[in-house]
Design brief:
This protein is α+β, with helices and mostly antiparallel strands. It contains nine helices and 37 strands.
């Protein structure tokens, strides 16, 4: 619900943007007839930074029936290239499903037509798309990609193309994106659905789109006999028309946003069911329980059946097992048995394929390894279940309807019956850090596939499973132009995982910072055996002090937290999504040298957002000859709406300033 609230705020903000946009640019809606104004346009006033704009983004989806249904989509796109960098939009790639097995259903693309238009010496020059500009390549066993490059494209050109997409997969209507990574001046999408098909539709940024609905009909032809006799019928349909104007760009790669596509104006479809010959609605997947049953069904060869396979690493697992192991030790041992024999190949999948091939090659996708991990855990007497999800960079699951199509992988959950909680892990992890998942798997909505579990307990927020903490405590003394001290760093959750990874990359015991002012020695790392979620590091350190003949300049932070502000944009239209919530604490005790007095000292300060979901405290005081500093940075939420961007930007700037403030000591 929280994420939906942020989307609603984002809708309002971008809608207001549209109201302020320059609406005088109205593109011609006729293919092959761009207006002179489109050709002469040099700068798009609502977004003067744009390399290109989409003048027209139009689609029409409908069904045809000639003895069987087919799904057809006609697409028309017209773009204005404003800068040289925008010429890349003349290169178009359209992937489509076309399996090598000729008996399988497939897609195809027809009626491709394209032109580029340039104004030269006051004359319009039209260059058509030719066959030599096109290619059709196979990607893998299942997909091909149609590519073409519109000719004679440069800054100032207008380009347009259209094509027709036919599909045998009538139950899969692609999501229609009305918004792009460049501004869209005019968008229209029309879809006509026969009454026998019932689709759930989710319209994101609904207030930004004009929607019209009406009843209509389609022609259906049924042919019989060698003479080609056709029985023609009129089938009632519902037609929906979606239009929008002056949509701002949503960049494909935006800092602190996992999936910008989540926030684009779009229409998402999911087949709810079909009416049979008796006008009875036959559900395809009405509920999440239906999806659970489909995946867990033992007749589902690529999923449910794999959950019943015997452990292929049983001998190795038996040798590693001890009856006195507690639950966590059993989970970790099972993980080690798996990863000792098999490596993750770097891919995430939902389904499994050939276990024999995985075992022979010694590697597989996370799903294939997870199926084997589940079998080991069950051999160890544990209750273990798959947890299905959509990868974080792939966007959130539609909140308004269930869908199998958006699920693209699963992780493993192990139930701790004694404490009524779960431990989560995935075979792609380098270590069995229970409940500390790779960031792309740390989604806010995942579903445990347990047939015995109550429905209200099946949904879990994987981002909330770990407590992410950094706690730094230092005791130091100022001596002869140098700070000498001892430091203890305690890390938990994602912070411990990041530390471990960085240490392996550095692979060193001691070291200096880049400036050469800090030297770290006698590093000792403490970790409870088999606990990969907490790390404690102890070090000695020396810090060179900046000084003059009379003054010493000391940063009481000793080890700074933030030094650069990543929020450098003037405005932001997307919500801010941090990798995870975390707390960063510094507690320093600094003994001052004799013969000096405090000339200047930073002031304590409290910084926070209006909702207190982001708080930073800088507390400093002097007690006798000692300076005590407590710095607490608490990011309570992972996501903030765009309306809070200015707040966060300003607070971040002030925090960096506090990180740099100096204590000045004057010689007596």
């Amino acid at each position: 619900m929280k994420r939906l609230f942020f989307i609603a705020i984002f809708i309002h903000a971008t809608y207001m943007f549209a109201q302020d946009a320059d609406v005088t640019l109205k593109p011609s809606l006729k293919f092959g007839k761009p207006s002179d104004k489109e050709l002469l346009l040099k700068v798009y006033q609502p977004d003067s930074t744009a390399n290109a704009i989409c003048l027209l983004n139009e689609g029409k989806t409908y069904f045809t029936y000639n003895n069987h249904f087919q799904l057809v989509t006609e697409r028309t796109v017209r773009l204005k290239i404003l800068k040289t960098q925008g010429t890349s939009y003349a290169d178009v790639a359209i992937p489509y499903y076309y399996p090598e097995d000729e008996t399988k259903e497939r897609d195809r693309i027809e009626n491709i037509e394209g032109y580029s238009y340039n104004m030269e010496n006051g004359k319009r020059i039209e260059t058509p798309l030719a066959k030599e500009h096109m290619s059709d390549e196979r990607i893998d066993r299942y997909y091909r990609v149609l590519k073409f490059s519109l000719p004679s494209v440069k800054a100032g050109s207008v380009i347009e193309y259209r094509y027709t997409y036919h599909s045998d997969y009538i139950h899969l209507i692609d999501t229609w994106m009305m918004q792009m990574d460049i501004p869209v001046v005019y968008g229209k999408y029309e879809i006509t659905i026969p009454y026998m098909f019932v689709f759930d539709m989710e319209t994101r940024r609904k207030e930004y789109i004009d929607i019209k609905q009406k009843e209509t009909n389609m022609r259906a032809a049924r042919y019989a006999g060698g003479a080609g006799y056709a029985d023609i019928a009129s089938v009632p349909c519902q037609q929906y028309i979606f239009t929008s104007q002056n949509l701002p760009a949503i960049k494909e790669k935006e800092p602190f946003c996992w999936c910008p596509d989540d926030y684009k104006a779009q229409i998402i479809f999911n087949l709810k069911g079909t009416y049979d010959s008796n006008d009875k609605l036959v559900s395809r997947s009405d509920t999440w329980e239906d999806i659970d049953k489909h995946l867990l069904n033992v007749e589902n060869y690529d999923f449910g059946q794999l959950l019943t396979f015997p452990n292929p690493l049983r001998e190795e697992a038996k040798q590693a097992f001890s009856s006195d192991m507690n639950l966590q030790k059993r989970i970790i041992t099972a993980f080690h048995v798996l990863r000792k024999n098999l490596a993750w190949d770097g891919t995430y999948r939902l389904y499994g394929k050939d276990f024999a091939k995985v075992l022979k090659e010694g590697s597989g996708s996370n799903s294939e390894l997870n199926f084997i991990l589940l079998s080991i855990l069950k051999d160890y007497g544990l209750e273990a279940y798959p947890v299905v999800l959509n990868l974080r960079h792939g966007g959130m699951l539609p909140p308004t309807f269930p869908t199998l199509d958006k699920l693209d992988t699963f992780i493993v959950a192990v139930y701790d019956r004694e404490n009524d909680k779960y431990f989560f892990l995935d075979s792609s992890m380098p270590y069995p850090s229970l409940n500390v998942l790779p960031l792309d798997l740390s989604v806010t909505r995942a579903r445990i596939l347990s047939p015995k579990m109550a429905e209200n307990k099946k949904w879990v927020n994987l981002l909330e499973q770990s407590s992410n903490v950094v706690f730094i405590q230092s005791n130091a003394t100022v001596e002869e132009g140098t700070i000498i001290g001892k430091r203890t760093v305690t890390l938990a959750g994602q912070k411990a995982t990041e530390y471990r990874r960085k240490q392996e990359e550095k692979n060193n015991e001691n070291g200096n910072d880049n400036s050469g002012t800090i030297a770290i020695t006698n590093k000792k790392i403490h970790q409870t055996p088999d606990n990969f979620t907490q790390i404690k590091e102890e070090t000695d350190f020396t810090i060179k002090i900046s000084q003059t003949s009379q003054l010493l300049y000391i940063n009481p932070m000793l080890f700074t937290h933030l030094t650069q502000n990543p929020f450098i944009q003037n405005e932001r239209t997307l919500p801010i999504e941090f990798p995870y919530p975390y707390t960063f604490t510094i507690s320093n005790s600094l003994k001052l040298p004799q013969g000096y007095e405090v000339e200047e000292m930073p002031k304590s300060q409290l910084l926070r957002t209006e909702d207190s979901q982001f708080v930073c405290k800088y507390l400093i005081e002097r007690k006798g000859d000692t300076i005590l500093l407590n710095y607490i940075f608490n990011l309570k939420s992972y996501q903030f709406p765009s309306e809070q961007y200015k707040q966060i930007q300003e607070i971040w700037t002030k925090i960096i300033k506090k990180n740099k403030e100096l204590l000045v000591l004057k010689k007596l």
